[in-house]
Every structure is written in C-alpha cells, then in structure tokens.
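Troubleshooting: if your tokenizer reports a length mismatch, compare your output against this known-good record of 486 residues.
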Amino acid sequence: MPTAFQTAARLCVAASLSLFYLVFSPDAAAAPGDGMLPREVEAALARAKVPREAVTVLVADAEGQRPPRLAWRSQEPVNPASVMKLVTTYAGLDLLGAAYTWNTPVYIDGPVRGGVLEGNLYIEGRGDPKLVIERLWLLLRKVQALGIQRIAGDIVLDRSAFDTGAFDPGAFDGRPLRAYNAGADALLVNFKSVQLSFTPDAAGQVARVDVTPPLAGVAVPATVPLAAPANGQQGCGDWRTQLRGDFQGAQFQFGGAYPAGCGEGSWVVAYPDPDSFAARAIAGLWAQMGGQVQGTVRDGRVPAGLAPAFELQSPPLAEVVRDINKYSNNVMADQLFLTLGFTQKRKGTFAASRATMRQWWNERIGTGEGQPVFDNGSGLSMEGRVTAAGLARMLQVAWRSPVMPELMSSLPLVGVDGTLKRRQLRSGAGAHLKSGTMPEYGVAGLAGYVDGASGRRYVLVAIANHANAAAARSAFDALVDWAAQD
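Known-good structure output:
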C-alpha cells in the first residue's frame, strides 16, 4: 500500500496537472464561461444597442470531437436570413453531387427546308439557375446551327417543370424592381432582369443607353440628357434617383439626366411583368441575331414523344453553389431548392422541396438540435427558422463530407471576395463565412468556418433577431476575432 506521503505526493501531482491543463488548454483558456459572451462581444453588442438575449451564438471545433467553446442561446430557433443558403447549398451538393448539371432541351416538330422550320420550336425549362444572356445566345445559336433562320410556327416555352403558384415580386418588401426579389421559374432567363448601360457622350451632351437583353415589344430610349457637374463638382452621387426611371408598361422612360461625372454606369432592373420576361427576351434576342418567327413566342407544353434536337447543359452545381453563396443570389438558391423537390420527389413545388429537405436533414444531420423551418431556399422569408446548434452541427457534418471543399470554397473569404470583400477583421484571421441580413425586419447573421491561430478550425454561427440587428456586425466581427485567437 502507498504510504501517506506517497498518497499526498500523487494528489499534489494530479492537482498540478489539472492546473496546467486549465491554464494551457486552448479550449479552457478561451472559454468565457457558461452563460457568458466574450467581453469584446458584449461590449460591441452594448454599443449597437442589441441585447444579448436577442443573439444566438455557437463556436465549436469543426471536427465535432470536443464540446463547444462557446454556446449562447444556441437552441433558440431564429430567422437566419441568407445564412439559410448554407443549408440549401450543402443539401444540394450532398444529394445531387458537385458535378450535377441542369439540361434545357430544345425540340422541333417539323422539317427544316431552305432555312425555314416548318413547325414549332420548343424550349423546355428544367430549372437551370444560370440561363443568363450569354448562354441564351448560345442556345439560339445552336438553333441556327440546325439550319433554322425562320420559324414558320411558334416558339413555345415549356415552364411546367416548376409549379410555384402565383408570385408577387413586391410582396416581401414592396420593391418589385429589385433583382433580388425575382421569383423562381423552370425557364429562368437572365434572372428576369435587364441591365441598362449608360455611356456618356460629351460631344453630343447625352448618355447613350443600351439594354441587355433586348426585349421584344419594349421601347427603350437610345439616349438620355447628360447633366453637367453642379457647382464645379465632379462627383457622381445617386445617379439612379437623378435619372427618375419609369419602367412600367411597354416603354422605359427617364425623367431626369445622367451626371457627366459618373463615367459608364450600369443599372440592373427586374422586369415589372416577370411572367412575360422569358418570351420577350427570347423573341428580342432571336430578332437581334437575324432570326424570324412567323407566329408568336408563347407558353405551352412539349408534345409527348418528341425527341430533343439538342440540350443546353448548365455549369456544374459546384459553380452554381459558388455564385449562390459568394454573392447571395436569392433566385438561384430558390432554383436549387425547387430542383431538390423535382429530382427527389418528382414535383417542382416548394412543398415537395420542403419535404425533401426535412427528410434529408433528419437522415443526414439528425433531430437532436431541432429541425429548421424551410420556407424557400434563399432565406428571403419571414418564416424560415434554424438554431445555432443545428446549423453548427450541419457545418460539422459538412466538414467531414466529400463535398466539403466545394461548400467551403463557395463561401465568401472575409476581406477578399464576395459579399464580405470589404469586411476586415482586426486579427486578420482566415474565415470563410456566409452573411445574411434583412435590416427592415431586424435580422443579421454570420456562419461558416474560422481558422484558429493554433491551427485548429472552428465552425461559427452568430445570428441576431432585433430591431437593431444590422448594427450587430461589429459584435460578430469581434466574435470571429475571438474564435481565431485560440
């Protein structure tokens, strides 16, 4: 048996080791304690006038092998705004694979003689999120490569793959002309938006106007007056307001002038009649390319049994996910969300997509942290909900998955690119994070991966639901700095 002296010595050594690990363990040293936030985060929240009870936070090892370094109200369901795109994009990568592509089949139902298609041309939308003007031009150029210059029948657009019901682009925030409010569509052409370009011509005292894509039946003025700098000032200012654009009806109008000091400018506008946009854009571009159509461009269905003449393939999902997360593209996220329902449940509806997402979450992430409320894929919703613990758990699962590189590289790198290009951290830490904000509705958030000074990587989730949530950005930045200084 050990002597009393030996027992006392062993107790002393054990106590010393406990003290050593308490002082020098990175997790223990960094932990602010239960029910507490780091001092710098608390101070930033106080300056922003955001109460700590309005914030949910979780910081944990990306491997998921250790208890969280910090958990504050992490089981509380909150609105994540665009942070919800993390869930949509990881589910897409996990279920479909990084190489998944969308195909847009094109059909003809008659012979081609002397450059004339003696029948109809059909374009079937299957949800391609990136059918932008350059790729639409390529599609129509492939039609011409079939020997078709004139279509004796109609151009028929089949948009039946998705059934989203009636959609009001102004319902969310009363700004229907903002491109971020565009609705999903099986044949989503150029995000249902036009780009107006203004090029000053000092000699003519006008700015020349160009519209992309050209829209059939919509008149756009070739020029607008050029405004001389006021009081010798060379600045640009809010030139869009100065132009006083009116985009309703069949003619775009401008009631103001374009400031000479602005140089070349670009204005992206969601078309006010989104249901007719694809038809107008396709008809306008086909005419610009020298094509003719004897009939009309209209909605319809591809006849049963008709084989495609060719299919236009989209970029791979890995590239699409990068666009969604780097630039927080709402309609592309909704396209992916609906694609999950279409591929997994054979229904391109939001209800089928929500069912797909619920099943995937339960099987892949688990039910222990609570299941998110999936409204749409973008997070542009007042109904969406997720917990910090659930989102962090998903990020840990993603970290160990084969598609981790694609997901992580799709997130904005703080201070380098995407929506966080202008955001700087005091620590200079490497962090791949997705931000989300709906200032009018009191939502702001940040989630993703942070590199620690120790070489360890962490998942971080921070979301505020409060009237002053937008002011909590400095507190979130302080949290990232804290997480990195481990």
